[in-house]
Write a structure and sequence with these properties.
alpha/beta; three-stranded mixed beta sheet; three-stranded parallel beta sheet; 6 helices; 8 strands
């Protein structure tokens, strides 16, 4: 049964533009939820966490619950959360509005000059990353596609994974990318 339900979940995720991942408010983010989230990332889908059964939670505020989820799955800090109750219908329309918002975020095309200004401005003021004793520098960046959003980064040397995570954080600070899975293609400058 579990294999069948995972196969159905994968198929649904593959066919979606935006995935609403239901999280049971009483259970929190479970191992199964983590597996589903991995599929969402693997298929480069946009996502909204719908925290269901919120009407049954008595001892926690949405802010505190959000903090707890963010601590448990820190790598998903860019995913918006909507607190709903399927039983009472609370915030169902808010969840759909958030899905529309995330969908619009995923369709964006960012002009190359704006991307490069954002990266270079922050890169000058932030910490430095090195690979084989050479400082990693982005020569320029462009957007290859939307839905999923893929950025192509041209660098002087091969960046380490921590550097790409750093670039992602910069982009998420500067541009409206809430709920959007982004990925990078890196091209090292030829010598």
């Amino acid at each position: 049964v579990e294999v069948f339900s995972q196969a159905r979940a994968k198929e649904s995720i593959r066919n979606a533009d935006v995935v609403i991942q239901m999280i049971d408010a009483l259970e929190g983010f479970s191992r199964d939820d983590l597996d589903i989230f991995r599929y969402i990332i693997e298929y480069k889908k946009s996502v909204v966490f719908a925290i269901n059964k919120w009407d049954l939670v008595r001892d926690m505020t949405p802010e505190r619950y959000t903090d707890e989820i963010r601590k448990a799955v820190a790598f998903a800090s860019w995913v918006p959360m909507v607190f709903i109750s399927c039983k009472t219908g609370d915030n169902i329309f808010r969840a759909l509005e958030k899905v529309q918002e995330v969908y619009n975020n995923a369709k964006q095309i960012f002009p190359t000059p704006e991307l490069n200004r954002a990266i270079h401005r922050v890169e000058k003021s932030e910490s430095r990353f090195f690979y084989q004793r050479k400082q990693i520098k982005i020569l320029y960046m462009t957007q290859k596609s939307s839905q999923p959003i893929v950025f192509v980064i041209f660098t002087n040397v091969k960046p380490v994974p921590a550097y790409l995570a750093y670039v992602e954080r910069i982009l998420r600070k500067v541009f409206p990318l809430e709920g959007v899975t982004i990925s990078f293609e890196v091209r090292e400058r030829e010598r």
